[in-house]
């Protein structure tokens, strides 16, 4: 399934070619497709490794960023994070950087994977607090560590407005787009975030959270790792059931203005996801619609 115009095609043969050329000791291990997100395609390699290949050339920088910072961040976090073990170089079979990581056992969030959502919400809050409190170790908000989700809302208004327009034109979307847009417009009038910059994961959607025995076990895919203000980091709570959401808010003790900015980020990312992937990635569209439905339900309950 191709999602982007400049997507790089990859399959098992490509993976084996890369391994034979750069890590021949792994070339005969079983290679099994392990899933694909919007940015990367993954293959499990034997029992202990995972090959990750960017879907587009510009995503390769994220792997370099992970290789630099994840070993330094991992000791400060209460759950597992990806452990890079090989920095793959561009080759004839695959023209951009790729990577191999340790395999992390766990289950992507879904029905039946978590039995106590309140505990899960507290676990996630603890992991987020730990990341945000970790010393920047000289990192600054520039280059690959400067992502839009760590900044203010206003610079994003152009593409968010276009996404709302696209969503209004989608037949069968069945969402109150006008109410969602009001939330975004209201948030634009709020004071901009202040305070010191912090480490941010950038994309704590359910696909990047692994559970084990009902608890948060690992946070994966730090491709959005950046330095900035944490409002957008909290947007993930609308991807979780109400029990997890309530426990997360209680644990983080966010003020009302931060909560409203976080909600606006949740709206912005989800409406752009619906707009961009409507015809190409139905599963991701369903995830975005579920988030937006949760936001609208919350608003009616408040």
From TrEMBL:
Residues 34-263 form the Aminoglycoside phosphotransferase domain. It comes from the Bacteria. The lineage of its organism: Bacteria, Bacillati, Actinomycetota, Actinomycetes, Micromonosporales. InterPro entries: AGP_Transferase, Aminoglycoside_PTrfase, Kinase-like_dom_sf. This is Aminoglycoside phosphotransferase family protein. It comes from Micromonospora musae.
